[in-house]
Amino acid sequence: MNNQVPKTKSDAIARLGKLRKTIEHHRYLYHVLNKSEISPEALDALKHELVLIESAYPDLITNDSPSQRVAGTPLKGFKKVKHTVPQWSFNDAFSPDEMLDFDTRVKRFLKDSFGHTVTPSYVCELKIDGLKVVLTYEEGMLVTAATRGDGTFGEDVTANAKMIESIPLSLNKKVSGVFEGEVWMAKSTLERLNKEEIKAGHTPFANPRNLAAGTMRQLDSSIVKSRTLDVFIYDIGVLDIEIPNKQTLELSLLQKLGFKVNKHFTECKTIEEVISFWEKWQKKAPKEDYWVDGIVVKVNEKKYQDALGYTGKAPRFGIAFKFPAEQVTTVLEDIVLQVGRTGVVTPVAHLRPVSVAGSVVSRATLHNEDEIVRLDVRIGDTVILQKAGDVIPDIVQVVKEMRTGKEKKFIFPKYIEDTDGTTSPIERIPGQAAHRCTNKNMFSQKRRKFYYFVSKKGFDIDGCGPKVIDALLDAELISNFDDLFTLTVGDVLALPRFAELSAKNLIEAIDNARTITLGKFLTALSIEHVGEETAHDISEHFGSLEKIRKASLEDFNAVYGVGEVVAQSLAGWFADTHHCALLDRLLSETKIVNPERKAEKGIFSGKTFVLTGTLSTMHRDDAKAKIRALGGEIVESVSLKTSYVVAGENPGSKLDKAKLLGVPILDEKEFINMI
């Protein structure tokens, strides 16, 4: 049984009751009032869970369940329009397996209808995230434009539709019919409007979908004209001439009549081709100037569409194949404390496993005590999980309507249990939101320090990941960082799953890592408050480890980018006798080479860069080195002072902030051309 489906019927009844009430609440906000307390993706996730539970317990399906209706009710501010053609909504699929099931259902239904095996083709169209519009033409002239509403009645938005240049006031042929499409706003238009809103001291708009829907419901059509909406038409509801016998030909007819049709549609012979199209557009969609949240898949042949027909709420011949959601809902099952390499204690949410942005997630950080209080998150809560680009999943909201009263508040304990069974006291760091363990020798903390020491940001020892470090620590072969460089092949052979060749490879990798730059050396030491960029700044300022070891608090304070807290941490660390002894031992085993200094003059002199996303042609560290070599600075956050944001694949929120602030953005090709 799917892990989102309760194991007992009584639990299913309780969960369904909460889901239906919650979905109806957010459906009314989203579709009727054009407001949202949660994202469309999160609402989709709640609906998907509802359908999964009802599929497992079909006798619990009720006529008033959200799964049995088309969302939306006309607003009182507009005249009601009765649709001459019922306005259906598509069922959703979220995975290739669900699409394979759809293909099986279609073929089984057609075989039963025609008495023999039928192999349909499919048409894939982009699913534009906007507001559905229904256009009625008589003798080629636009007479009515309406929203979908509840599927039977919509809102008369004809005056507003006439303000959209891509909606023809007259067609190229004097035909009468009903045509359906999606009104949308360009992402570039949203950026322009938001700059105007910020300049006027107003709150910027959230996203193009909500703004497009809200604009179409404006009573003043001049506002619609000023906001530059657009439309794609994708379907013919009824027509007084013969409708083509294939969906692809229908799209061509729409274009000939003068409608704007999205050009990115294709015919697929098999469901496997459909899945490939879906996978391709997951990567391509962000580059378009409109929101795309999936693809719509329809049986191409009209005679097969007619045979398949409709269920109570959706066509059997089509389905919306959604992209992996960046926001989903799941249940927080526990909160567990985790000790980091610097001793900071982080609360980690243990979640009911759920797929978000294409990967299954069961853990998410809650950051600190203040974040738990801000979210008012409790054990047992239904939460909204978000993943943007390559950013680690984050809990952004609690769906409080789903609470049953059995949820438990989390109170930070005064002690934490280590992996070896011992306990250590924890305290809140004065002036900060974080807690830390007062025992600097916790075994779990030592593990994480070793993980970081051998990682790419530190000594970059190939093949020496967390599992190897765990084995070495558990076998008591290493206790301090320098112990790694004294290991022999014989030592490693004593570990489980190591043979002669793999042991030699590990020792060779350790030997290859003995030479390191000063910046990486400092980064690997896990000095509190000293990250990758700070370590590089210190390296560049002092130029050698000898000068750093002799530096005073005032000397550290004088480093550009180093504040009082970081300076105190550095001075304290290098004054510690144990750390001094560690450095001496490390220096006897390793060699620090001259750091890569920032060029005195270069094309990037005086320029600051922020990198976000994944670069496909070079490692991010190499990109940073190139920038520094050309005189530039690397910073972690975007501000008005940022010169450029370099955006790779799957960029995070830094790209959105850059757009909002008007910071120049370079894609990977543009960046490479510059360097």
UniProtKB/TrEMBL annotation:
Domain BRCT: 599-675
InterPro entries per UniProt: BRCT_dom (IPR001357), BRCT_dom_sf (IPR036420), DisA/LigA_HHH (IPR041663), DNA_ligase (IPR001679), DNA_ligase_CS (IPR033136), DNAligase_adenylation (IPR013839), DNAligase_N (IPR013840), NA-bd_OB-fold (IPR012340)
Record-given protein name: DNA ligase
Broad class of enzyme this protein falls into: ligase
Catalytic residues identified in the record: 127
One function term, GO molecular function aspect: DNA ligase (NAD+) activity
GO cellular component: cytosol
NCBIfam families in the record: dnlj, PRK07956.1
Name of the gene: ligA
Short name of one Pfam family: HHH_5
Residues noted as binding NAD(+) in the record, renumbered to the chain: 89-90, 125, 148, 182, 298, 322
Family: Belongs to the NAD-dependent DNA ligase family. LigA subfamily.
Required cofactor(s): Mg(2+); Mn(2+)
Source organism superkingdom: Bacteria
Catalytic activity: NAD(+) + (deoxyribonucleotide)n-3'-hydroxyl + 5'-phospho-(deoxyribonucleotide)m = (deoxyribonucleotide)n+m + AMP + beta-nicotinamide D-nucleotide
EC numbers: 6.5.1.2
Organismal lineage: Bacteria, Candidatus Nomuraibacteriota
GO BP annotation list: DNA repair; DNA replication
Keywords: DNA damage, DNA repair, DNA replication, Ligase, Magnesium, Manganese, Metal-binding, NAD, Zinc
Described purpose of this protein according to its UniProt entry: DNA ligase that catalyzes the formation of phosphodiester linkages between 5'-phosphoryl and 3'-hydroxyl groups in double-stranded DNA using NAD as a coenzyme and as the energy source for the reaction. It is essential for DNA replication and repair of damaged DNA.
